[in-house]
Structure formats: C-alpha cells, structure tokens
C-alpha cells in the first residue's frame, strides 16, 4: 500500500479495507459510530479499538471462572465461558478471513457476546429471569455490561455494529451486519463442537452415539464436524452473498443440536447440581434486594440515579463468577466455626 501524504496509520488501514475486503463487508470508516463522540485513534480503526476495549475489560477476565456446561468442573480441560468465547472468536475469524469480511468486527462481537452471562451458565440465567420482575437475558445483559456497567458506569462506548452483533447473536434474532451473522453461526458451531467434546471427556457420550443420519452428512468425530460446518458455511456464503449453510448441513446441525439437548443439556447426571445453583442465585438476589445497602458503591449510585433496584441487583449477582458466588453464599449463610 502506498502511504498517502500525511495519512495516519488508521487512515491507511481504512483505505486498505476498501481495496482488499469484500464489497459486502462492513468498512470501519462507514461505522454508525458510538453513543459518545470520541477523537479517533491514529493507529487503530474503530472495530479494532472496540476489540481491544473488550479484551482489557473486567467482565472479559471474569469469564475464566464462569460455567460453560459442566458446573465448576474439576478437570483442567473442560471448557469455561472464556474458552468458549475464544473458540467462537477463532471460528468467526477463520470464516471472516475466507470471505474477506471485517475480521476486527467479528472478533470484537465474538469476544463480547457473552460478557453478561451469569455464573453457573444457563442455570444462573434461568434463575434470574424467573425471579426478577424485569426478566434477564444474557445477550441483553452483555450489551448493558458494555454500555453501562464497565468502567464504573461509563461503559466502553463501543460502536453500534459491535453492540448490535452482541445483542443479536442468539437464534431468535438477526444482526444488522454480515459479520454479526458470522458470529451468530460461529457461536452455535463452537458450543455444539466443544460441548460434545466435553461430554465425551466426562463419559456422558461416546462418538458412536451420534445418529448415523447426522454422521453421514457432517462426520463422525468432533473434528470432522467442526471442519465440515466451517467449510460448508464459507462455500454456501460465497455462492449466495449471505451468511448461510447449505440446507442438508443446516438440517444436520439442527438435528445434532436436538440430540445434544436430549443427551447432554437435559441429562440428569450432567445437570444434577443445577437446581442447587438456581437456588443459590435466587437466594443471593433476594438477600441483596432486602439488604440493598450491602451492594458496592457504584451499584448504589445507579439506584440513586433512578435505576430499578431489581435490575441493579441482577447486575451485581449476574456479574459474579461461579467461585465468587459460592464464596459469597457461604459467607452470608453458612455458619462459621467458633475460634475462641
């Protein structure tokens, strides 16, 4: 690339995007921007800057101690919410690079998509959704985390495109950008792949348990299926100009997901502790609602500014790691031995 006169590195990268990326890609220079206008970085385009902000956030670091599927597993090789996030990011970057889409945007969305997830995985999310009168959805909470909760109420001030991708990464919604659609698929591919791998590691499943009608389409090992999903998504997207899987592979994914719900996600052995986790979350919620003064100062400040206390209590309890939630419960409700 020829360096333009007096062009910053950021401007050169923005120019490079227009030359190299697909015309279907989201160009950094065309971002709808941030809620609060900021001076541009002289080195990084806006989506790269968003990715860096997410990576350095406290909520991102907490993902390392949050459940993916198996509650606080003892083995070192089971996935956590953090390793899930990294696998989603890697899938998304592979697909984006192949399609010449904006890798910085897909990586920012992928790294931020689960920042609002509760301790104890979807069990924690169910508990807060049931007990809070305003409900609780982790995708909406992820957006609230980056807009309001990070940096003591200032938020990360991310671009519209990143926040949109985070909000709409689940099955029942659709992102505004193709990069967001890539992350939406990458999330499903990642959790189907690694949850089965963890289930096999934990003795819940065997490779041979996958029904033949699924295996004949997408493969009989976790590695074969991951490879097939990504190749099919890239090939079909090239052909259609949208982010799509072919009909046979999309149907096989749907069947495999249903198989996982039946054999893993609703397995009484794998999920035997979830009732306790839900009870713990509801107990902490009720405690802080009744003892609102026990919340940290920055959460009390939000209530003073007009936020509903039920939502703020969800903010605090939902942001906990598994380990901190258990320690807090023990501190509040488990009697301690007398030390005379």
Strand-helix topology:
Layout: H1 9-20, H2 46-55, H3 58-62, H4 81-99, H5 103-112, H6 121-131, H7 138-149, H8 160-167, H9 178-201, H10 212-218, H11 222-240, H12 247-265, H13 274-290, H14 297-304, H15 309-319, H16 322-333
Helix pairs in contact: 2-5, 4-5, 4-9, 4-11, 5-8, 5-9, 6-13, 7-8, 8-9, 9-11, 9-12, 10-12, 13-15, 13-16, 14-15
Descriptive labels:
340 residues; mainly alpha; Hypothetical protein af1432; 16 helices; 60% helix; 0% strand
Structure description:
With 340 residues, the chain is an all-alpha fold. It has a single domain (9-26, 39-333), classed as Hypothetical protein af1432 (Orthogonal Bundle). It is built from 16 helices and no strands. The longest helix is centred in the middle third of the chain and has 24 residues, at 178-201. It is flat, with a radius of gyration of 22 Å. The N and C termini lie far apart (74 Å). The relative contact order is 0.12. The mean pLDDT is 94.
Tell the overall outline.
flat
- According to CATH, the fold-level topology is Hypothetical protein af1432
**Major sheet:** none
Number of spatially distinct domains: 1
The N- and C-terminal alpha carbons lie at a distance of 74 Å
The CATH class: Mainly Alpha
Helix content: 55-70%
Derived from helix and strand composition plus strand pairing, the structural class reads mainly alpha
Radius of gyration: 22 Å
Portion in beta strands: under 5%
Average pLDDT across residues?
94
The CATH architecture designation is Orthogonal Bundle
Spans of at least 5 consecutive residues whose pLDDT stays below 50 are: none
Oligomer: single chain
